[in-house]
Structures are given as structure tokens and as C-alpha cells.
Amino acid sequence: MTQPQALLIDDEPDILELLSITLIRMGIDCDTAPNISQAKAKIDNNNYNLCLTDMKLPDGDGLELVTYLQNKRPDTPVAVITAHGNMQTAIEAMKLGAFDFISKPVDLSSLRNIVSNALKVKPSEKESTKTSPTLSQKFIGETDNMQRLKQLILKVAKSQAPIYIRGESGTGKEMVARLIHSNGPRSDAPFVAINCGAIPTELMESEFFGHKKGSFTGAQSDKEGLFKTADGGTLFLDEIAELPLNMQVKLLRAVQERSIRPVGSEKEHPVNVRILSASHTDLSEMVEKDSFRQDLFYRINVIEINVPPLRERVADIPALVDYFVRRLADRNQITPPSIPEAVIKKLQQYHFPGNIRELENILERAITLSLDETLNANDILLSQSNSSQTSDGIERNGMPLEDFLEDIEKTEIAKALEQTGGNKTAAADLLGISFRTMRYKCKKLDID
Ligand SMILES: Nc1ncnc2c1ncn2[C@@H]1O[C@H](COP(=O)(O)OP(=O)(O)OP(=O)(O)O)[C@@H](O)[C@H]1O
Fold first, then answer.
1. Residues in domain Sigma-54 factor interaction (predicted)?
2. In a domain? residue 17
3. Rounded to two decimals, what is the model's pTM?
4. ipTM score of complex
5. Ligand 1 centre and the CA of 435: distance in Å?
6. pLDDT (tens digit, 9 = 90+) per residue, 93-120?
7. To bridge 230 with a disulfide, which of 105, 125, 192, 353 should be the other Cys (CB 3.0-4.6 Å)?
């Protein structure tokens, strides 16, 4: 196998030497350039496996090279070297397509991580939505917006940029995060998902960063946090809007410094994780209301991905139904029932507040209850709980508004819990609220 080749661009000979020595020790051939014009000439004539560029060069800035490479050599990963603390330039470079960034003074172990991840990036001709098995077989959707989403997943999978995935409950945000991980250079390392709304506030810091034995009552032994578990891989922060403000500060620090400090420890530990996050609430609105930190939002939202609700891609319903029915039949060891057009029509007219997860649940219930070889439109039970008719026809009868609204809330929650067999997470999805809100409301309204 031929040795990989890297182009290093910096006007400071000492830095070029440090970078070269580190990369040569990793078995990489190094070529160097002191400015943008020489770098461009070399890029034109060589197909490098990796470029590393300083941001401040005598004849321009590194962003120009990032753009140049995106156009000329889109398969060559480029990482930028930024002045310490200059997060803004690093984020701008990643938005333009840089693979990752490293700040000065260059930390050699971070440099080695970035370089080895960059060398694992596969060129795009070998990766397309057709050839990626998980994308073509498990991520169902051929409508234009889903095709664009699949292309975007493959593109961002190659970079290390933090991604924020936005979409209603049950649209497939976690699936998108898993696909970004499995199609990228970290795919052999762990993917760790955390639901930020499901961790009790008092345990959050220890869950994220770990703790030392004896650091608080109940800490009977050292514990590794989720950042450490995800080391080398991806950490997926689901429902990030649920993070309390004090944890937002700590998360920002960990993301910025790329290191963590377990509760009760004096020492910082470097970690190498890619952060993906998701939420069904509008984080930018929360930033405006001061309930989400702007600096954290800016840091995690380098690239935003929107997952469309199911009602905006009804043309995908037949393929999704086919996929889920086969999967459910396989799981239950039965022959998949046939699906008449009337079933598809009924589903396509529904508004799916719980999106794909709700579709899956509806089909599961229908298959479990129906004993026929053909699913009947009557087997498809659709929730009324989110329809606009909910409070129509209900008389307030002089009841104070607050009590009246509580009554409605209680009824709707009870209905959703009944539909999901008492599963609070699924019921929260059906109602379009977070698990944490669900837990809070159940407690407040005295629902078991
Ligand atoms: N395009 C798709 N093709 C097939 N299955 C899908 C697709 N999108 C989502 N699913 C399935 O739908 C279910 C819900 O997806 P997922 O958990 O990723 O949604 P989510 O948006 O993260 O939900 P939540 O907001 O509750 O965290 C999962 O079982 C997932 O496998």
C-alpha cells in the first residue's frame, strides 16, 4: 500500500517542522507550502489524502484554501489551525467544509487524533446513498427532501463538525445521528446516546463526566462518565433543550477544551468525541428567551439538519408501511399481511403528531390485533388526542380557566398513556412533549 500524503501549509518554519515530524512518525509523506498561492499550485497537481492549513497566511487566510479544496478536491479532508480561543474562525471553517480544527499551541495527541480520523474518510465515489447499506435499506424515504437529507448525512459524516438535528418528536433524529456516526471515520468507535431530559438534574454532572469514589454520598466507587465511554466515537445529546443552565456551562467547557473533569477530581482528562445533538423545540427561540446559552448554541450548531415531519412526506408512507410491516411480521414470525390501498389512504390523511414512531406503533397494534391475511382500514386506530377538535364541544360550565385546562390536560395524558400501555416516553411522543415535561405533568396532575 502506498503511503498517505499530506500537504501542510504554514508560514512559520517551526510549526511546519513540528507538524511534519508528527505526521512522518505516523507513516505519512509530507509536502509543505508557506502561502496560499504555492498551496493552490500543489493542490492542482497532487491528490493529497489530507491538508492542514494555518489560518493566517502571508497572502490571505486559510478559509480561502478550505473553499478552494471544497471546489477542486472535495474528497480531501482539510483541517485548520487556529489561534487559541478563536472559536469563531474554527466554526466558520467547519461551516465551509473543513473536516476539523486544531488550536495553537498544537497539542500533539489531538493532532494525531484528527489526522488518523481524516485518513479514515472514504472518498465519495465509493459512498453514495445507494451503496451505503444502512442508508438505502433502513433509512426509508425517497421524496426530494429525504433524498437531500441522505446526501447531507453522507456529507457531514465525513467531517468532525458538531451537528444539531432539529425535528418533531419521532421524526428520526436519533436515526440520523446514528447514520452520521456509522458513515463516518468514527464508525468503529462507540456511539453513545443520552436523553438529557431523562437524567435527574442532581446526577447529570456525574453521568456526563464521571466521578471519583467518595465525591458525594452514594459515590461508592469511581465511575466513568458518558464522555469517557464515547471516547474516540460520538456522543449524541438528545433533547439538549432540557439541559439545565448550570450543565450548559459545563458542557460548553468540555466541548471547547476537549477535556473533562470528573466530579471530585482535580485533574482534567482529554477526550476525543464528536458531539451531535437534537431537540424538538426551537433552540434559537430558547436562546432569545435566555433559557439556552447563546455560546453553547453557537458551538453545537455548526451545521443544522432539519428532519421533516411525516406529514410533509406522505409520499413515503407506502414504503415505510411496507418496511415496518415486513419487519414486524418477521419479528412475530408470521407472513406479512397484505396492505390494501384504503389503509395507505387512511394513513396518508392522518397528521401524525408522533411521526414515524407513531406510524410504527399504529402498525404494530394493527398487526397484533388483526388475525387476517389482509390488514383492514378498521384495524388502523388513529389517535384523536392531538386533533384540533379536542376541546370542541366540552363545556367549561363556569369552571375557572386554569382548572378547566388542567382537566383537559389530564384527560389527554391519560388517553395517551392508555394508548401506549402506560409507557410514558411513548405517550410523551404522542403528545409532542418531552419526557421530562411528561414526568412533571404526571406528578403535578397526580397521574400514576
Ligand atoms: N426514515 C426512516 N426509515 C425507517 N425507520 C425510521 C426512519 N426514521 C425513523 N425511523 C424509526 O422511527 C422511530 C423513531 O425514530 P427516532 O428515535 O430516531 O426519532 P427521534 O426524532 O429521535 O425521536 P424523539 O424526538 O422521541 O427522540 C425509530 O424506531 C426509528 O428506527
1. 139-368
2. yes
3. 0.81
4. 0.98
5. 16
6. 999 999 999 988 888 988 999 999 999 8
7. 192
